[in-house]
Automatic annotation (TrEMBL):
Belongs to the ATPase alpha/beta chains family. It is found in: Cytoplasm. Residues 158-341 form the AAA+ ATPase domain. This is Flagellum-specific ATP synthase. Its EC number is 7.1.2.2. It comes from Sphingoaurantiacus capsulatus.
């Protein structure tokens, strides 16, 4: 017996517990299906916690008196009243590294593709690192997306933020696939947020050929996940893109869709008692959009960049939807897809008159800008007189510009058309525009 005591004493003598502080454990008091209330916790908003009874995870989202408000990260947890709630510091950081390339993960970073664990080599804050606005570089270099209409008429730049606005079934996913296959990005980060599970598997199978997938990270959070997970999915995708930008890489970030992220924030805000405003959106939604979009851009210190494309769903093709309007106000350009063009068999169905690149003047040559101006004038002249033309009420010779717009309408639509697997580079696109529509 004495020998066992001596051995135990030798083992305990090697333990240094002088730096170990007691851990505060709270208790779960209530749960209404979306939010929890716990007592005995002293944690800031955004902190992660674990529930000892179920092993579930949650996040601190607010306070009510001395009670801490939590939101679960799993909707199917069998939570028990009075169970312990312990701090979990891992929730604020994202595992990052080259091992993520070619993989598909969920909002918590767990792999979904069945290829085993992902040995991430570094950590990055989920909320991003505070930055100096003077470190954000100007957008002066073209970003080739392989789509002729975008390259020539809505020229994208390295570090630009673009809103891709469309109703349902207008070809948004097809255009995203074209941009992925034709872009010159070194790294692609895709956040599939709030979409149907079938669309996630379909996107991976049809829009990501092996060559593209090898340099792509996909964060997938389908619509049946909790709103907090959907929100964290968009933030995780952005954090991964920030990490690669810090390595000096040219990154393309796609979030599909920003509207679903806003819907998730609406659920969270309303559950916390925020007052609803336009279309039921609480004020926190309109703060989330710029907070997320401002994390993209070019970094003058590292030379890396994040060129971001945020898809925005225009419910009922309403371009005055508050999320559409808020997104257009913060990004550097927007691409509007037209259902009318799609019904005519024009794909990608880009409405050039309503679309805009705010950085094109700093990128394109004077010859390209002049040709794009001619194209826009002809497009606008036809659209403004569309009803008269279709009814036969317009008389030829009434306006030379309208006459020219009618005569060149097939050229205008033909320039937009491009097959899904076809890649047309920036130089060729700009040259074709200048040749066809020279001022």
């Amino acid at each position: 017996m004495s020998s066992l005591v001596d051995r135990a004493g030798a083992i305990l003598s090697r333990l240094d517990v002088t730096e170990v502080a007691p851990r505060r454990v709270g208790r779960l008091m209530s749960y209404d299906g979306l939010t929890m209330e716990a007592v005995g916790l002293d944690l800031p908003i955004g902190s992660g916690v674990k529930l000892t009874a179920t092993g579930g995870r949650a996040e601190v989202v607010g306070f009510r008196g001395e009670k801490t408000l939590l939101m679960p990260l799993d909707s199917a947890g069998a939570h028990i009243a009075g169970s312990g709630v312990m701090p979990d510091a891992s929730g604020a950081m994202v595992g990052v590294g080259n091992a993520l390339l070619g993989r598909v993960v969920d909002a918590l970073g767990d792999p979904l593709d069945g290829f085993g664990p992902i040995p991430t080599s570094d950590r990055w804050p989920l909320e991003g690192k505070p930055g100096n606005p003077l470190d954000r570089d100007r957008v002066t270099q073209p970003f080739d997306v392989g789509v002729r209409a975008v390259n020539a008429l809505l020229t994208a730049g390295v570090g630009q933020r673009i809103a891709l606005v469309a109703g349902s079934g207008v070809g948004k996913s097809v255009l995203m696939g074209q941009m992925l296959g034709g872009s010159e990005a070194e790294i692609n980060v895709i956040g599939l947020i709030g979409e149907r599970s079938r669309e996630v598997s379909d996107f991976l199978a049809t829009k990501l050929p092996p060559k593209v997938r090898a340099r792509t990270v996909v964060v997938a959070v389908p619509a049946d996940h909790t709103p907090l997970l959907r929100l964290r999915g968009a933030m995780r995708a952005t954090a991964i893109a920030e990490y690669f930008r810090a390595q000096g890489k040219k990154v393309m970030l796609m979030i599909d869709s920003l509207t679903r992220v806003a819907h998730a924030q609406r659920e969270i805000g309303l559950s916390l008692g925020e007052p609803p405003t336009v279309k039921g959106y609480p004020p926190s939604v309109f703060g989330l959009i710029p907070r997320l979009a401002e994390r993209a851009g070019a970094d003058a210190r590292t030379g890396g960049s994040i060129t971001a494309i945020y898809t925005v769903l225009a419910d009922g093709d309403d371009l005055d939807d508050p999320i559409v309007d808020s997104a257009r106000a913060i990004v550097d350009g927007h691409i509007i897809l037209s259902r009318t063009l799609g019904e005519q068999g024009v794909y990608p169905a880009i409405d050039i008159g309503r679309s805009l690149s705010r950085v094109m003047a700093d990128i394109a040559s004077p010859e390209q800008m002049a040709a794009a101006g001619v194209y826009r004038r002809l497009w606008s002249a036809y659209e403004e007189n569309r009803d008269l033309i279709l009814m036969g009420a317009y008389t030829a010779g009434g306006d030379p510009l309208v006459d020219q717009a009618i005569a060149r309408r097939p050229d205008l639509l033909g320039f937009l058309k491009q097959k899904p697997g076809e890649k047309l580079d920036f130089a060729g696109s700009a040259g074709a525009l200048t040749e066809m529509f020279a001022a």
